[in-house]
Write a structure and sequence with these properties.
Structural class: mainly beta
Largest sheet: 28 strands, antiparallel, barrel
Distance between the termini: 50 Å
Oligomer: single chain
Helix content: under 10%
Mean pLDDT: 85
């Protein structure tokens, strides 16, 4: 091409960008708009934002303390929990059991010593965290020293609108930075801004800001980015993007891009075409010249082929050189699909008339967007082989409640051209969601087999509400310690009287949008959103009931004076 491309144009055509896929060569803020209308309809609905939850107990109780002992009954540590009800604040302070030498008694005297990390949390009436602070015990100063603090503010519909960070300086908390977010009724981000604390001015100074607009389907229409001008104390526009959508397909037709560089505004335009499968087939870039006219700076086409199931099998990207004039290959990508849904993406570069391998990705996600398989390989042209130059292959698995149950790590064997496992982590949980197993296996290089290196099991005793009474630890089959939990009535619990304390806790199982309950008395069960509004109700018949959530998100099930939080998917 005759002209040197700008930063944006270079990003659009950079064939070796490791994160990019064919037809997805826009910055992160633009990439999601490249999806076709078909892809938008088939994509899983975004999960509702779930605010961080504060520590909570069930049945109108709250935790007072945790005492850890050896199997022989000797003390190890204890955690005391105190509450400041007026601030809905909870403080957990750790102590360790030690024997200190007493000159006066000429003997070692057992004593509890402050040590470790203290946590301080606060919550709102919906149980969302509004404060989380950490402290560590400074032995020399005999005082707690802060080690990070976060604060949250939420909108009426439960979305996080402000998150503030603080650091510990000169014996107290000092602001560090904060983020502010506003949303429309559909939950799209209208404005996001980050700020840094100006200690000299004792005020917030701007850092970065974006303002966005959307159509009635939630597709982004404009995106404006700003930086903070420290001299004028104002936001200064850095770039502006506008997406023009085809009204019939809602695919991107044109993108306008305006950005500030070296004090001058530059204007670019990208025009796009799509094939019958909704994949990009053409991309033409323009730049405004000094006369204000659009000049073509790049022309790219993408030739897509598909398998019998309509899945993309191959993409060949080419660039048009007007001087030649001819299309010249840039890269090729192939897609392979395993029976379990794993997709392998391989990219090739066109070098001296031949396709030369470049990178290979293997990936698989579940319906919740969690990674199940991921690997990356880089082609070594000198040795003519694939190598794992960036990280291992990983495999994950989850239970129905979303807990991680398996994590495997593999290394690449360049002689055998295959992945070999070298580490496996196994986890398990009980019906209350508490971990019962943590197991590690590592490769024995001599035997070539995985061998158990670490195994910790956890056993629990619960009260009738599902609160932990006893947690027992065992390592490699040998009991190591146990924790005992103590509770008292919670005056802030959303119940009246002692009915909730005496009522048996229901068994709750979430199946997508359906919330199934068992162990109920024959009474009505209601489902509430985080604003307290009833969104579903059902009678309990034969001790069972099913509630259906209207949308994914966090809800509260109320029954017999009790309140149980559930996450519907």
């Amino acid at each position: 091409m005759k002209e040197k491309l700008t930063l944006l144009a270079a990003a659009l055509v950079a064939a070796t960008a490791a994160w990019a896929m064919p037809g997805d060569r826009l910055p992160d803020k633009m990439k999601h708009q490249r999806r076709s209308a078909v892809e938008r309809r088939e994509a899983p609905a975004p999960r509702a934002y779930v605010a961080p939850a504060a520590p909570a107990e069930k049945g109108g109780l709250r935790l007072d303390s945790i005492v850890e002992r050896t199997p022989e009954g000797n003390y190890i540590s204890k955690t005391l929990v105190e509450y400041i009800d007026a601030e809905r604040k909870r403080i957990e302070t750790p102590y360790y059991f030690m024997e200190e030498w007493s000159d006066e008694q000429q003997a070692y005297i057992p004593t509890w010593q402050l040590m470790g990390n203290r946590t301080e949390t606060a919550s709102d009436e919906q149980g969302r965290l509004t404060l989380q602070a950490y402290y560590w015990w400074n032995t020399e100063a005999a005082a707690w020293q802060g080690n990070g603090r976060r604060e949250w503010v939420y909108s009426a519909d439960g979305r996080e609108v402000t998150e503030t960070y603080s650091n510990w300086q000169d014996g107290g908390w000092t602001y560090s930075n904060k983020q502010e977010t506003t949303y429309d009724a559909a939950g799209n981000v209208l404005e996001y801004a980050s700020y840094q604390w100006d200690a000299a001015a004792q005020a917030w100074a701007g850092d970065y800001r974006t303002v966005s607009t959307y159509d009635d389907r939630g597709n982004a229409l404009t995106d404006t980015s700003y930086s903070w001008d420290a001299d004028t104390k104002q936001w200064t526009e850095e770039y502006f993007m506008e997406w023009v959508l085809d009204p019939a397909t809602y695919q991107v037709d044109t993108i306008y891009y305006r950005y500030l560089e070296e004090g001058a505004w530059h204007h670019q335009r990208g025009v796009y075409e799509w094939d019958d499968h909704g994949r990009q087939s053409r991309e033409t870039m323009y730049m405004k010249n000094a006369a204000g006219e659009w000049e073509k700076t790049g022309d790219y086409k993408y030739e897509n082929t598909y398998d019998a199931q309509g899945r993309r099998a191959q993409t060949i990207a080419s660039e048009w050189y007007a001087d030649a004039p001819e299309w010249t290959y840039m890269y090729k990508a192939t897609y392979e699909y395993a029976d379990n849904g794993t997709e392998t993406y391989t990219q090739y570069n066109y070098v001296d008339g031949e396709w030369v391998p470049d990178t290979k990705y293997e990936s698989l996600n579940d319906d919740e967007g969690r990674s199940l398989v991921y690997s990356y390989l880089q082609w070594n042209a000198a040795d003519n082989r694939w190598e794992s130059s960036y990280g291992p292959r990983q495999v994950w698995a989850y239970d129905e409640a979303g807990h991680l149950t398996l994590n495997e790590l593999y290394s690449w064997n360049v002689e055998e051209l295959t992945w070999e496992i070298y580490n496996r982590q196994v986890y398990a949980y009980d019906e209350h969601g508490n971990q019962t197993l943590d197991e590690s296996h590592f490769l024995n290089n001599e035997s070539g087999q995985l061998e158990l290196q670490h195994r910790t099991t956890y056993a629990y005793e619960y009260d009738q509400h599902g609160n932990i009474l006893v947690k027992q630890y065992s390592g490699m089959g040998v009991a190591t310690s146990e924790e005992r939990y103590y509770y008292s009535p919670n005056p802030l619990a959303p119940v009246t009287g002692q009915a909730a304390v005496q009522s048996p806790a229901p068994i709750v199982y979430v199946d997508g949008a359906d919330i199934r309950l068992a162990g109920l008395a024959d009474a009505a069960v209601t489902l509430h959103d985080l604003g307290g509004r009833i969104v579903a109700t059902a009678p309990a018949t034969d001790g069972r009931a099913t509630l259906t959530a209207p949308a994914p998100g966090l809800y509260v099930v109320r029954y017999g004076g009790q309140a149980v939080k559930v996450l519907a998917r």
